[in-house]
């Protein structure tokens, strides 16, 4: 800690030497004269900017001779003002329901700002975050700025090495709904297996959307299935794409890890290169625009295999996969009139990856010495293509606002295996294979109507709409040599990842229809009431009706209470219903053939496992928001979430099981598992955010303490059919530990952000709480809590060019070490929040014109 405090002191003390230019002081107020907290103030045409404090005031040192300031805030229309004068006073008007309307997730009222919301909403300004942190992709950016958000880098987890699973408030990746510009984003085709967070879940791949294309991210930390539909049990993440015009932004970033625990003498690894460009052009004089982003990211392998197992048979290759991402995204709006416009947005992402599989040693019966005399380390490759597009029209219709859109998305995941062999082919075996894969597609047609009645009490907003959605899921086989056994005396199929077989192949689809109505009534200027009701019908499992009730009451001008209660649901994904595979797992270093049987397979039907059905939930949130004085703000939100019939991946049943054993022996597999509605869980938690703004010398220091405290309990394990009464065998302690590890007891962020003139620095401490997993021997693996420290320094070289350098995990902290033979992944750590790569150094060059 002394080293941490020294780093802060040196950064802050040196900053005052860089102050220069004219000091601009001002205050931003709303139409009623109340201070607007957190408004963005940017000197036009430069990288120079700041945010207003608790009293709406700001200080900014100009970099140009005749500065102009662009001032914006969620729920208000942006305003441009001259920067001269001793004191700048700005009054922002509320965003109207015109072409430039701003919507905030959690409310369909276009006149509602985030501070008025009855539900907790985090607004994350990506411009600020990407400038001052070392993380490059969306998952890792959110991991270190939003305490209720958790994402883990995976290794040794097959497909999850290439797609990072993410969770909100400790629930599953598929229990958070992701929107882009308010429209439902499709999920990934991947089902998370092995020791991943979100084991047995599907989820949305946030990293297909480049951070350079995003203006802000809104996180609704509240159950919202009644408002937005299936998957919104934990909350909603809404990604808002950039709409800026006449501004070119370009970034070049590079970073690398301090290479501890390598088997060689290499000092750095995991090189991460990113380059992106964003530009927008205006169209016409009614606010139309086209904003486009190109992004490329290349991430190299890390190597963390130098932690020996007792018998010397630890994996020789263990670490992050090598990943390359290329993305192109656009956001556009075309005015038809003063009250109508067409919008088009979306893009594509091409990802290729190489991930380490388990080592096959020279004497292994799965090796062919004539090909690999020293054994080999298979590489699982991925070829992932993700694309989405939305087209819609927004128009005034009488006193109503009408929105009609069509949204199509697709995610295709194609596996390959290289540096491998099929042992049953002997010395004639190929060393690379096409292993097949899967694809998920979604098409959504939605119609929404909203109307605001300003004369009903203090204002009534009514919204109604309908949505039709079709989903398709397909699983396609690999080449024959990737799965076939040509010699029954040895194990066949491509080592590292056996290909999908013809018996795995499936094509499935379903339809969904939903209709909703919601209303928000301002009973008085201090008291808001809101309610939502949604009906949905799925062609494969039936209908559901859910509701939500909310309220917000301003006790004083500086103290607000808010609360919600809702029911929710999540339909099992088509991937969970239809996925089927035979793969190799390693238990105590021994390879085991495992059948993951689809829900309607002969195995599950013989066992009496019922068809998957929807998960249901009840959740409540009660919160307090306060401005304490002119520079301090506090939000507290307690929550309760009860989920019934969670879809999980069961324990692996062995071939010697008295019930399922004979069936598995007939299929020539050692173990089997399947998806089932097997668990009821209960979560109790608290989100805390404390912000303070202070003038320090000629600059401004923003301090933030943000924390999530969470306790998840498994209330009940549900068994059925021939396995009734065998709860510990069906969904045992080891599998339950994986679910609980997705809900760490706490995560606490403490951030100091100082800006003076052309110089800025950010210091952030993140405390990751302890958690417990269970090893292959059934013994607990207790990961101790850790504190990581990030340090970033930024300096404006010119009015348009900024240099940022820094380090994430400055003091090179690692998780608790374990025997690699006993972990799920075969390395010294299972995937945990803080990651297992150590210190990261980075530098960025950012241009803005």
From TrEMBL:
Coiled coil: none
Top-level taxon of origin: Bacteria
Keywords: Cell outer membrane, Membrane, Receptor, Signal, TonB box, Transmembrane, Transmembrane beta strand, Transport
A Pfam family reported for this protein in Swiss-Prot or TrEMBL: CarbopepD_reg_2
Chain ranges of the TonB-dependent receptor-like beta-barrel domain: 395-810
Limits of the TonB-dependent receptor plug domain: 114-236
Signal peptide annotation: 1-19
Presence of the UniProt keyword Repressor in the record: no
Cellular location(s): Cell outer membrane
CDD domains tied to this protein: ligand_gated_channel
Membrane topology: Multi-pass membrane protein
Listed GO CC annotations: cell outer membrane
Similarity comment: family membership: Belongs to the TonB-dependent receptor family.
UniProt name for this protein: TonB-dependent receptor
């Amino acid at each position: 800690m002394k080293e941490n405090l020294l780093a802060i002191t040196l950064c802050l003390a040196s900053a005052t030497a860089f102050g220069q230019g004219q000091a601009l002081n001002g205050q931003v107020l709303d139409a009623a004269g109340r201070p607007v907290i957190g408004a963005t103030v940017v000197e036009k045409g430069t990288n120079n900017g700041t945010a207003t404090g608790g009293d709406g005031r700001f200080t900014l040192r100009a970099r140009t001779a005749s500065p102009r300031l662009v001032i914006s805030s969620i729920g208000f229309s942006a305003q441009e003002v001259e920067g001269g004068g001793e004191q700048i006073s700005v009054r922002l008007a509320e965003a109207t329901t015109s072409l430039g309307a701003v919507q905030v997730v959690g409310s369909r009222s276009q006149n509602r700002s985030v501070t008025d919301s009855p539900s907790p909403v985090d607004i994350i300004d990506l411009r600020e975050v990407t400038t001052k942190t070392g993380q490059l992709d969306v998952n890792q950016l959110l991991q270190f700025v939003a305490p209720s958000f958790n994402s883990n880098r995976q290794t040794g987890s097959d497909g999850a090495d290439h797609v990072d699973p993410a969770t909100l408030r400790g629930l599953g990746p598929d229990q958070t709904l992701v929107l882009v510009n308010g429209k439902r984003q499709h999920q990934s085709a991947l089902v998370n297996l092995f020791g991943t967070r979100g084991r047995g879940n599907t989820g949305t791949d946030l990293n297909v959307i480049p951070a350079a294309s995003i203006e802000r991210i809104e996180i609704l930390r509240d159950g919202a299935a009644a408002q937005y539909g299936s998957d919104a049990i934990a909350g909603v993440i809404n990604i808002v794409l950039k709409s800026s015009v006449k501004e070119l932004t370009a970034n070049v970033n590079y970073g690398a890890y301090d290479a501890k625990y390598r088997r060689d003498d290499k000092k750095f690894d995991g090189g991460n290169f990113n380059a992106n460009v964003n530009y927008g052009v205006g169209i016409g004089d009614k606010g139309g625009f086209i904003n486009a982003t190109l992004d490329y990211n290349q991430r190299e392998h890390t190597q963390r295999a130098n932690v020996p197992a007792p018998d010397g048979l630890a994996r020789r290759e263990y670490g992050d996969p090598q990943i390359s991402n290329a993305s192109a995204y656009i956001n556009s709006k075309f005015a038809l009139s003063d009250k109508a416009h067409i919008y088009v947005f979306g893009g594509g992402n091409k990802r290729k990856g190489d991930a380490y599989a388990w080592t096959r040693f020279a004497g292994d019966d799965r090796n062919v010495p004539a090909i690999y005399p020293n054994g080999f380390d298979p590489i699982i490759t991925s070829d992932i293509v993700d694309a989405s597009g939305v087209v819609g029209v927004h128009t005034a219709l009488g006193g109503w606002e009408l929105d009609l859109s069509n949204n199509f998305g697709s995610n295709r995941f194609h596996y390959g295996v290289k540096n491998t062999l099929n042992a049953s082919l002997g010395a004639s075996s190929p060393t690379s294979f096409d292993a097949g894969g899967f694809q998920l597609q979604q098409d959504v047609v939605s119609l929404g109507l909203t109307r605001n009645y300003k004369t009903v009490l203090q204002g009534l907003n009514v919204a109604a709409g309908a949505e039709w959605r079709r989903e398709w899921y397909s699983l396609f086989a690999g080449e024959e040599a990737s799965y076939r056994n040509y010699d029954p005396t040895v194990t066949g199929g491509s080592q590292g990842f056996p290909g999908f077989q013809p018996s795995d192949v499936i094509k499935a689809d379903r339809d969904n229809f939903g209709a909703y109505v919601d209303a928000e009534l301002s009973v008085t200027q201090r008291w808001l009431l809101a309610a939502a009701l949604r009906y949905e019908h799925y062609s494969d499992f039936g209908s559901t009706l859910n509701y939500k009730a909310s309220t917000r009451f301003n006790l004083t001008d500086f103290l607000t209470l808010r609360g919600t209660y809702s029911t929710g649901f999540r339909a099992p994904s088509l991937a969970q219903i239809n996925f089927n595979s035979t793969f190799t797992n390693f238990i105590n270093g021994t390879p085991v053939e495992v059948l993951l049987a689809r829900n309607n397979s002969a195995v599950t039907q013989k066992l009496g496992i019922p068809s998957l059905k929807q998960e249901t939930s009840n959740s409540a949130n009660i919160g307090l928001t306060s401005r304490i004085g002119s520079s301090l703000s506090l939000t507290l939100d307690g929550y309760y979430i009860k989920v019934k019939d969670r879809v999980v991946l069961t324990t692996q049943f062995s071939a010697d099981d008295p019930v399922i054993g004979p069936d598995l022996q007939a299929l020539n597999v050692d173990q089997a598992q399947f998806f089932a509605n097997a668990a009821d869980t209960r979560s109790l938690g608290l989100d805390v955010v404390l912000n303070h703004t202070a003038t320090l010398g000629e600059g401004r220091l923003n301090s933030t303490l943000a924390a999530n405290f969470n306790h998840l309990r498994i209330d009940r394990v549900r068994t059925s059919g021939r396995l009734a009464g065998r709860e510990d065998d069906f969904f045992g302690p080891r599998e339950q530990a994986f679910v609980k590890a997705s809900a760490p007891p706490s995560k606490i962020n403490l951030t100091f952000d100082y800006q003076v003139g052309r110089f800025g620095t950010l210091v952030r401490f993140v405390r990751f709480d302890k958690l417990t997993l269970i090893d292959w021997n059934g013994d607990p693996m207790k990961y101790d809590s850790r504190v990581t420290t990030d340090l970033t320094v930024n300096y404006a070289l010119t009015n348009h060019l900024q240099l940022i350098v820094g380090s994430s995990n400055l003091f090179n902290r690692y998780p608790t070490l374990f025997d690699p033979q006993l972990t799920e992944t075969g390395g010294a750590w299972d995937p945990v929040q803080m990651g297992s790569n150590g210190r990261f150094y980075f530098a960025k060059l950012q241009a803005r014109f």
